[in-house]
């Protein structure tokens, strides 16, 4: 494919779990991928290292630009100078628990951030006459207190500042589609995990601990509510659904889920059981991790995505847990070598 014909995607949140899988996927499809990254005092591009090619190399098809969803002018600048064909808005303060502690910031990034990006896309289209397709990273958290199964017609009842902000971003997206004819889609994605999942989300927190406990680097794991149920899928499967939404003839909203749900306790059993440990010997409840309002039960119905997009999840719950435990076991083994040789403090828990 010649350079002139490369499709261009702009991804916010490229340094996150989904950003890294989506970038791999889009590069595989022949796209040039532009990502917006935040300035940080430490490098925050670890999840992209394996696909990074120095931009001085003419073969580099992933390009990173500094920006922030709280800064409208920089979003407009990158949309106008990159001229993407597709924009994926994955950037977010994505931790539900943290959103209770930083509600104002969460709303600024998640809700108003989406609005800023939609405005940048709209004004670019208006002034250039070009086409841009927009994907909004919606969440099953928007359903909150509404019982399962949840699909595209289920009433939203958000239970955290994060979820309320995602509902606002959802409706901004619908509004820009209806008001301005934007090709804008909401993916309502249920929880999806991977070995690249942030370490303070419950699945990864558990599998990190399983690896470290098995290898003798840690004894206890402190958790909050074990009774909540989640519909957990594999992030690598879910990014394909994002792309598929933007390849349809018309823009629409889709639930993406496995349709299978498990409690945190069941995740513990599966993860500790995988390495022949009993979670009850290691887990302690710390009320610090309870949330002011909890989402008890999420299980999606992805019939529409299956029918219209031809999408199906490939990785089962058991396979997902095994993938994450195996990866974190290997990581713990490497940490053990460093700890035994005095390079890191083995008592320092992640
Ligand atoms: P992560 O938390 O792993 O990644 C979030 C990304 O957003 C990171 O790249 C982060 O940058 C970036 N970011 C944070 N704040 C800002 C900001 N102010 N400006 C620009 N970028 C910012 O999330 P996931 O990859 O798991 O999720 C991707 C998206 O999908 C999020 O919007 C999330 O809310 C949503 N979602 C996720 C689900 C899941 O189960 N994973 C389910 C449903 C929706 P940095 O690396 O610098 O922190
Ligand atoms: P969630 O994911 O809130 O569903 O949001 P998380 O893994 O944080 O919590 C899942 C459930 O586990 C319970 N829990 C704990 N959670 C954390 N983080 N830490 C703990 O120690 C702990 N103990 C118990 C929680 O109370 C909750 O019930 C994720 C994020 O990726 C969002 O961005 C995304 O929108 C939704 O999934 C779908």
TrEMBL record:
Superkingdom of source: Eukaryota
Protein name: Uncharacterized protein
Organism: Diphasiastrum complanatum
């Amino acid at each position: 494919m010649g350079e002139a014909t490369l499709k261009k995607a702009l991804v916010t949140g490229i340094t996150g779990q989904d950003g890294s899988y989506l970038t791999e996927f889009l590069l595989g499809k022949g796209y040039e991928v532009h990502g917006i990254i935040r300035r940080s005092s430490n490098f925050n591009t670890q999840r992209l290292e394996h696909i990074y090619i120095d931009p001085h190399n003419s073969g580099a098809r992933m390009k990173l630009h500094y920006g922030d969803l709280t800064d409208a002018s920089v979003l407009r600048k990158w949309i106008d100078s990159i001229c993407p064909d597709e924009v994926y808005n994955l950037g977010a303060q994505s931790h539900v628990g943290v959103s209770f502690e930083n509600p104002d910031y969460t709303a600024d990034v998640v809700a108003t951030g989406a609005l800023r990006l939609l405005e940048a896309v709209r004004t670019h289209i208006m002034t250039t006459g070009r086409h841009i397709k927009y994907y909004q990273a919606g969440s099953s958290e928007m359903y909150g207190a509404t019982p399962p199964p949840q699909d595209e017609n289920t009433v939203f009842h958000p239970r955290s500042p994060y979820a309320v902000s995602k509902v606002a971003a959802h409706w901004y997206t619908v509004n820009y589609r209806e008001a301005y004819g934007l090709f804008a889609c909401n993916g309502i994605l249920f929880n999806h995990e991977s070995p690249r999942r942030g370490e303070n989300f419950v699945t990864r927190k558990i599998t990190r601990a399983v690896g470290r406990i098995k290898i003798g680097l840690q004894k206890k794991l402190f958790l909050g509510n074990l009774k909540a149920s989640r519909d957990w899928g594999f992030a690598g499967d879910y990014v394909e659904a994002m792309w598929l939404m933007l390849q349809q003839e018309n823009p629409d909203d889709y639930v993406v889920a496995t349709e299978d749900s498990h409690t945190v306790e069941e995740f513990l059993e599966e993860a500790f059981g995988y390495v022949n440990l009993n979670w009850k010997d290691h887990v302690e409840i710390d009320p610090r991790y309870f949330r002011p309002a909890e989402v008890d039960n999420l299980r999606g119905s992805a019939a529409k995505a299956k029918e219209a997009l031809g999408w199906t999840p490939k990785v089962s719950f058991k396979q997902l847990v095994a993938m994450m435990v195996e990866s974190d076991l290997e990581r713990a083994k490497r940490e053990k070598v460093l700890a035994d040789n005095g390079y890191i403090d083995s008592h320092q828990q992640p």
